[in-house]
């Protein structure tokens, strides 16, 4: 399965013939200057929560591409009021079928507010079943036992976890999360963007290896393929 990393927690998965983009925060990320957001393809945009570093470029990219934006009820309402017409609500516990497969939303243990400080609904993550394989993006979250519910819905081939610590899980908790989700392959996100979430990538990869797992840390704008 092909994955392109756009920095911070923004990445895209190509599955079921569709470009599925997550949490686009690119134009405001100093580390992602190499990325031209006007060239990003998107058929769907999944948004995990309302913090600025996850929603900044949603409206821009959705208006250009016509992508369907998916998120909690509060995100659905917010983006609808921003003028987007192609928006779909999906709260934790809910499941929706799309043309590439099906998606179930799971709770994330994290705060969530819009840039003006107003309530942005429950933070969430998403588990995907597609013809190419299955994967779970936890969104910004602490380690939570709710992750053990994911493989009860479907067996996952890999997971995408935040590993920068301080605001989310760190490396050690991400390993525990992988055990609960029952995956051996992890894509790490949400690190290095800000001074308090700096990561030692070599040490992180080695720590995962010691746990019998593989951690992928692609460069910004790099496309990798995870063998399933």
UniProtKB/TrEMBL annotation:
SMART domains in the record: Lactamase_B (SM00849)
Domain of life: Bacteria
SUPFAM superfamilies: Metallo-hydrolase/oxidoreductase
Domain called Metallo-beta-lactamase: residue spans: 7-190
Name of the molecule in the record: L-ascorbate metabolism protein UlaG, beta-lactamase superfamily
Source organism of this protein record: Pedobacter westerhofensis
